[in-house]
Amino acid sequence: MTNPVVLLPLLLQAAAPVVQPAPVPVAPSASAQAAAAPGDPLPEDWVTIPDDEILVMTLAKGGMVAIRLAVPYAPIHIGNVRKLALAHWWDGTSIYRAQDNYVAQWGDASGKKPLPPGLVATPPAEYDRPGASAVARLGRRDPYADWAGYSRDGWPMAGNFQSEWLTHCYGMVGVGRDMAPDTGNGAELYAAIGHGPRALDRNVALIGRVVDGVEHLSTLPRGTGDLGFYATEAERTPIASIRLASDMPEAARPRYQYRKPDSPRFAAWIAGRENRQPPFFMVPAGGADICNAMPPVRRLPMGG
Q1: Residue 13 pLDDT
Q2: C-beta of residue 258 within 8 angstroms of C-beta of residue 49
Q3: Using CA of residue 247, residue 1, residue 69, residue 10, what is the dihedral sign?
Q4: What is the pLDDT of residues 122-176, one digit of tens each?
Q5: b/e map of 17-31 (b: 16 or more CB within 10 Å)?
Q6: 281 contact partners, CB below 8 Å, separation of at least 6
Q7: Sheet bearing 297-299, strands edge to edge
Q8: CA distance readout (Å), 191 to 21, 34, 59, 112, 208
Q9: Most buried of 29, 104, 233, 252 (most Cβ within 10 A)?
Q10: What pTM value is reported for the model?
């Protein structure tokens, strides 16, 4: 099979999501809590992400990229991704595409590497799901949906009151595919490295989000071929390994926490994103794009 291609490049740059370093836990005093801004989190607002929901890419020339897996939203695709990682299938493959203001894509550039047994060859189209389960929403209607907001487990979402889906924002990770009815088997993945390509919503399976190290993807030299594919093997970025954190030695596992969206403090954080305040911002916008209000994630200290 030829390499899956992600289509529809867009035209604007988006700001990188910042992984917030986790401080060493210290019980805050009552006065410190009283002085905190309304949108600031308390220690109980942070939830640790399980190790088997973190995918760690190590680049051969240095650099680590950590991806949080969106297990409830594309379980069959993610089942394939976990099997590929446990089989060490990506070891020795490469990042073979970097299209400006669009995506960086990785996998087997030849399209000939045998896949491990047990993969679902053509998963269902896990592009959306029934319901409207967001626990917090932005104040304005989304340009691509009736609403945009956040799931209870800290994912950016949009929906139309009949179904809901994850949003293609900077750093989100999807499954490369060919033309429909192909849905991609998870062997070829991409991360958005420009302005959120929201036209891909409900057209491609999103399986996660880069929560650490996105700069190792967004700063790659742009591809010299069509659609940002590298024209020569020498231009590609070799991948040393891709592992589930749960498959790594305990002491080497990076660990992360997401911020719970179902609290008054998170509602205040949304209001702050929608209405930036002086002294720098003189005219509040009165709203925010979901891709400019990505739910916070922070890294725990090693051994934390």
Answers
A1: 37
A2: yes
A3: positive
A4: 999 999 999 999 999 999 999 999 999 999 999 999 999 899 999 999 999 999 9
A5: bebeebeeeeeeeee
A6: none
A7: 20-21, 297-299, 256-259, 46-48
A8: 22, 40, 15, 22, 9
A9: 104
A10: 0.88
**CA 88 → CA 69, 85, 155, 274, distances in Å?**
17, 5, 27, 43
Look at residue 3 and tell me whether its pLDDT is greater than 90: no
- How far are the Cα atoms of 91, 110, 177, 258 from residue 113, in angstroms, in the given order? 11, 7, 16, 35
Q: Tell me what pLDDT residue 161 has.
A: 84
The per-residue pLDDT for range 266-303, each reduced to its tens digit, is 999 999 999 999 999 999 999 999 999 999 999 999 86
Burial of 209 (0-12, 13-18, 19+ CB in 10 A): buried
The full DSSP string for the chain is -PPP----------PPPPPEEPPPP-PPPHHHHHHS-TTPPPGGGEEEPPGGGEEEEEETTS-EEEEEE-TTTSHHHHHHHHHHHHTTTTTT-EEEEE-TTSEEEEE-TTS-SPPPTT--SS---TT-EES---SEE-SS--TTSSEEEE-TTS-EEEE-SSEEEE---TTEEEE---STT----SSSEEEE-SS--GGGTTTS-EEEEEEE-THHHHTSPPPSSGGGB-SSGGGSEEEEEEEEGGGS-GGG---EEEE-SSSHHHHHHHHHHHS--TTT-SS--S---GGGSPPPEEEPPTT-
What pLDDT, on the 0 to 100 scale, is given for residue 288?
96
Q: Are 102 and 172 in contact (CB under 8 A)?
A: no
pLDDT at 1 over 50: no
Query: Which tokens in the block code for residue 138?
Result: 């932005």
